């Protein structure tokens, strides 16, 4: 297959593989365009299918439901995107959510008049966990899989330690304001998600820091020769991932006005799935924040639509698994075609 990459006139483009002109609106041009926007096409088909099958799916209330459900996942998916762009992976975000939620719940219960302090505590806990991951990966050269797997186990244990092996209940009602307060008609987590996506998209596209992240993930040796401090970049992405997971944890705890020690269990898998479905390469150096956002909303739309159609949870997992494999397969195949 040929991929059009540059215009030669108003009706043709040039193939990236052969250098020969490819006529617009030809079969090759249409195929390349469909491949490039395959996930967008799939997303539109999914929305169309669920809208046809369920009258509730296309309502404003249901859209808000999808956004609220997506918000906590969006934060950890954004952090995971930064890590994966460097060629790493963060398996600890689920446990960081749990320990941050438990810490914030404990603070809220002890200081009922200082509700917003709980947000800072949760983010600080996430920062500590992420910094430990970053130090192990960047300074001691522990493989990311091993370092974050260790934090996954340790964080889960600490979550139970904070609560004495039980959930933290009896929190002040004001604690729920963090997740349930509306601004401009949108709940705070949804606003945080929107702001986070926009800010990180700009940072990764328009700043020197974003360039360094892509460079380290693409070829760390070449990046270091070019003068980039790869260790600092690696440390920063894991620290940011931890902060975002901590913020996600306090929002999830606020939603249920409780501190469950098993909160966030398995969330790291959905975060990784969103990044992969969005087109990021697990080898690093390729992917976008907008792609992750698309992958995230694909997963949440599927979850919501399948729930409306009363599809059993185990079949939902099968469908999501097939989608992940298909997305990676398309990415690998298209990459080979570009070589």
TrEMBL record:
TM region(s), chain numbering: 28-51, 63-85, 115-136, 142-162, 183-204, 237-257, 269-293
Name this protein carries in UniProt: Ribose transport system permease protein
UniProt KW keywords: Cell membrane, Membrane, Transmembrane, Transmembrane helix
GO cellular component: plasma membrane
CDD domains, sorted: TM_PBP1_transp_AraH_like (cd06579)
InterPro entries in UniProt: ABC_transp_permease
UniProt subcellular location: Cell membrane
Statement: the UniProt record of this protein carries the keyword Transmembrane helix: yes
Pfam families named in the record: BPD_transp_2 (PF02653)
Topology in membrane: Multi-pass membrane protein
Gene Ontology molecular function, alphabetical: transmembrane transporter activity
PANTHER family associated with the record: ABC TRANSPORTER PERMEASE PROTEIN YPHD-RELATED-RELATED
